[in-house]
Prior knowledge:
Largest sheet: none
Distance between the termini: 80 Å
Mean pLDDT: 72
Radius of gyration: 28 Å
Order of helices and strands: HHHHHHHHH
Amino acid sequence: MTKYDELLQNMTFYSLESVNNRIKYHERELKRLKFIKLILSGVSVNNASSICGFSRQYGYKIIKNCIENNKSKKGRHCKLNSSQMEILINYLNEKMPFSIIDVKCFLEDQNIKYCEKQIRRIINSLGFRYCRLLKGYINVYAHKKLIENIDDKISLK
């Protein structure tokens, strides 16, 4: 019995399935690379797609994706310029235990609108840690309702 046969006996169905999927993925990649090589050698899209075994429309899609992948796609551009980024870093250093809402209010004062998810990403990319607030404290409207319901006679000790 060879090592290959021993490996096949020890593998489960799911691991065999994942290996099979990886092989299929690499076959598709090889077809795409072959298509791009044919296009670069001067073959038309119709002929290259028929040689590789897929439709002309898929061939144009491969060309479009190839052109787009050469561009730097790192998400949408940041609204913060370098001076605003320095101001934000200084603010985060001064107010070290901060929450996402504090940073959001600070950015809104600077006329920059970000959602909380984007602010979390910016803070994580800068290498800072933020404090997570309890959900009851995040909701401003809940605070207003609680304050309205408290009687003036009751003293909080």
